[in-house]
Specification:
990 residues, alpha+beta, six-stranded antiparallel β-sheet
Length: 990
Amino acid sequence: MAVEHPVPDLVPRSNVESISAKLRFLDGAGPIATLLRTHDWSGHPLGPPENWPATLKLSVSLCLRARFPSAVYWGADFWLIFNAAWTGMAGPDASKLALPVAETRPELWSMIEPHFRRAFETGEGATFSSQPVTMLRDGVPTLTYWTYNISPIQDENGTVVGLFNQGLEVTDYVETDNALRAAKRERDFILTLVEEQRIQPSPDDVMQRTAEALGAFLEVDRVGFFEVTPEDLLIYGACWVSGRLPPLTGTTPSAVFGKIIGKTVQRGNTLVFNAPDDPAAPPPAVLGAIGTKAGLSVPLVRGGALQGALYVSHAEPRAWTRGEIALVEEVAELSWDAVARVRAVTELRALNADLARKVAARTAERDQLWEFSTDLLGIAEQDGCWIAVNPAWERSLGWSNEEIVGRDSQWLRHPDDEGGSSAEIAQIAAAGTTHRLERRLRTRDGGYRIFAWQTTLVGDRLYTNARDITEERRQQAALRAADARTRIVLNAMEGIGVWTYDVARDRFDGEIGFAELYGFTPEQLETGVSLADVAARVHPDDQAILTAAVELARKTGQDGAHEYRLRLPDGSVRWVMARNHVQHDAAGGRETVVGVGVDVSRQRELEERLRQAQKMEAVGQLTGGLAHDFNNLLTGISGALELMQLRVTQGRTEDLPRYINAAQAGAVRAAALTHRLLAFSRRQPLDPRPVDVPQLIAGMEDLVRGTLGPSITLEIAAQPNSWPVLADANQLENALLNLCINARDASPAGGTVRITAHNETFDPSAAAVRDLPPGAYLVVCVADSGTGMRADVIARAFDPFFTTKPIGQGTGLGLSMIYGFVRQSGGQIQIHSTLGEGTTICLYLPRHDGAVGDRAPAQTGPTLGAARRGETVLVVDDEPSVRMLVSEVLGELGYVALEAETGAAALELLRSAERIDLLVTDVGLPGGLNGRQVADAARVARPTLPVLFITGFAENAVVGDGALEPGMALLAKPFAMEALVERIRTMLGA
């Protein structure tokens, strides 16, 4: 029972000293001893410390002075007194001092009470090692580990009055030991897994065994692999399940797992989620479908692309430890490596098997080649002794294998063949390359056969192949003999030269006929003529022909035939037709070229005479037709004029207009005829301007449709980016219209007419086929689906007066006029036709690089007014009637007309002080100056003087290669006086 102590200051001094003596067991015992001295023990069952039993004092003294965490549990209620070390380890504060242990650590009491009661009741101590204890630390239940003992405290009578307890927290030690054990367990697992992966026969087996082992080790519900296709489809592969989740099979789009997860794995980061509501978890719908509530996924990223993954799934939420995550990542990497290794081994085995099959097949092929080759094959030592020869030796020479092997070939060689085996072997060994030669070997019957040998030294063995060329050499000898005989015959013939060209020496060998043909002296021939010497004799315009022939022989070795002109030293030109044949050596190389040249100058002269005769025949046909048509026209004109003269004499003028109209109609028809003839001869007067052909075609579309009629469909396909051309727009319209009319006449049953325009550029070869200079052209075509044309009709289609139409329905000048216009414009025209299918006629017009201007406006016949006072026109023409008519018209209009017959006379007037407002001049003038020269001279003195050329044909001197200069115009003869008046007034600005 506790004893109540009086207040110290009321206690006598002797009593105070007595109490101090009783508390000496606390002296020097640390901060807990101070707490015990100052603690309010009033009402406490233990009473004040000075009155404690000696056994308690002794136990407390030992406890307080111990450096090890220690505590005394006194009495059956286990009142707790602890030392400072215990406070630092266990954490109780001073308020819990001298309280029952059940109150100080209620969270532990249920665990330690049985041990305490047993020791208190039995008097037997107990020791516990690494005991797990869940303690509250900072208000959080924390698992700790302790090693401690419980010792009973007995009084002097042997009665247990309390317990002495010492303990040490070993949490760090236990966790470290557990970590080491877990690491060893994981390492053993990894080593075992690697060994098991290594022995798997296929990538699928590797992944399946990995899934099984990892699932069992982690005690999860599903482990598997999937691959990712370029289309972002997941293809599920090997999979292991515990039975609580189904396996994942088939394919599914990666997009179902969400963009965030997709970005995570695409970057190669491991996906980890502990529960369905984890922010990193896939969408709930996906997790619900596959039954997963916690999972891991380790991606395989190669080359920046996701190729597959190892996944781990659990049917319940699970907090994945860092060790588990690291383990799964390590297993994933090991799996990728193992799969790659197994695939490589599998491919290597397949490759080795395939290689073995190929080697076996190649060996069998070589064995077959060895057995059945017609060439002599052999293997020899470096001294030339044969180790092995194939059966061809016996088939070709008659000697058996036993007679040849073990010996060299010296005993079989022809005695006249130079060279010994030892010298040849040394040459082969020194060269290190294939050695080629020809040798004759003796047959069993005493004859000899010629072989082309190829020998190579490989290591210390000689490998030889010998081809029997006996028959080839016999044929070559026969050919040389025949060639010699042919040379004798050809050299006896005039104008024929036979030659042989040695490729290696670059030398021509020939007889006197070759020298005479190519203009070489016998001394030059003896010294040696090179290819460059022959090329120097070829006409500069034909050098390309010779170059092409040489290149053909060099590149292909083919025979050649070509013609070219020679320009001989005396300046004469000779046509030569040459043929050549390339001869090859035993190795297949070009060795020599043999050829013959024939002087065909006489033949070319005869051909030229024939062409001239044909031209004259064509001119005869032309003039005959021209005379026929002009006689008809002149009959009408002269008859009308005679009747007019007769009626005037008779005083009967009422019929004069009818005769005048008849004469004028004949003159118009004659003018049209001459215009067509000029077009055919390419000398018609043209007004070339830059023309936009698609725009021109579009402008005449209505006219063409009306001309074709309702039974024919018109199609137009002109490229909008078609190049402009420099041509007379009116003549081009007439040409296209005439072609469309011909197409209509060729389609009596109706059909289709198609007008097209497109750009084309021709290289020299393509241009030569079309008889054009190389360059850029606009191709304008008119195609029909009519009856077509025969080849003989196409050949004569452009001849003047040729027509297939009935008499009276065609002049035969339509196509010839178009031909002349196109050729005069620098182009070409071609016909493509198939009987029963239709005809296509294409005009090839040169591209114009300048800008496209507006077409010359049509003259609408301006109202003629009187001339301004003093306006003067100089008329220059060598035809008096023309000068008279033009001057009469000018006089009627009030102009002053000056006349000149020649260019010189015109220049005198132009250089004078006479007023001249317009120059009207013919182009062709007598006296050495033409109209263009007169105009140019006039422009020097009078730069702004308008010039009107009147001509019956377009001289190049007028327009040159382009359009007329500003202030100049062209009027074609014959012309109506009204047209002349309109042009004069237009140029003078009236």
